[in-house]
Amino acid sequence: INENGSGKYIFSGRSVENVKLINITFDLNLTAQQVDFRGTESSPIKNVIVQDCVFKRLGKKCWGLAVDYDYPQKAAPSNYNQNILVKNCLFDGTGAKGGEGSSLELVIFSNCRSLKIIECIFQHVPSKEKDAGLAIYGYCENVIIRSNKFLSNVSDMYIQQSKSVLVENNCFGGQVRIMDSRLITICNNYTK
Fold it and tell me: Percent helix, strand, coil in the chain (nearest 5)?
């Protein structure tokens, strides 16, 4: 476990390329907060595969998986995380809490290009309106969200400040929120 400031991370990667996490169970149980990949302007995250993994027993104020980005202070980013695949994973928020005044996302992505989330299960998101199973935000582009199941959630997914997102063949149980985004295609989804 890597200590990083105020929180603990089971994995915290910067300047990461060509990483595969396959068939791993992350039982976070408050001992670690998250699996976190964080890109920067000079070193974005590239070519990451997370497949056949389980993320369970999340802690307070944390997420299970994050591919995030340290944004420049005064302008839009000039670089981006790219080629991220998350496939056939389980994200279980049983017992997770967002903390006072904050939201909790089981999985969060920002500033990603060529992002695919396929055949995953997102379940047991806490019951606050701002909580979500999946969050896509902040300059994400060319995103495919396909054949996933969102179970027992108040808010299944939110998409914010993103473009060219395809959402198809998913099972939704709660709500999907789309804000400040464009070129979003939603087709062939169903409710449980």
Answer: 0, 55, 45
pTM above 0.85, yes or no: yes
Environment class of 40 (CB within 10 Å of its CB; exposed 0-12, middle 13-18, buried 19+): middle
Report d(CA 47, CA 73) in Å as an integer: 26
Q: What is the pLDDT along the chain (192 residues), one digit of tens a residue?
A: 333 444 444 555 667 889 999 998 887 665 555 788 888 888 889 999 999 999 887 655 567 788 888 766 667 777 889 999 999 999 988 776 665 556 677 888 999 999 999 999 998 876 666 678 899 988 999 999 999 999 876 788 999 999 999 999 999 988 899 999 999 999 999 997
Distance, in Å, from the CA atom of 169 to the CA atom of 188, rounded to the nearest integer, reads 5
Cβ(111)–Cβ(69) under 8 Å?
A: yes
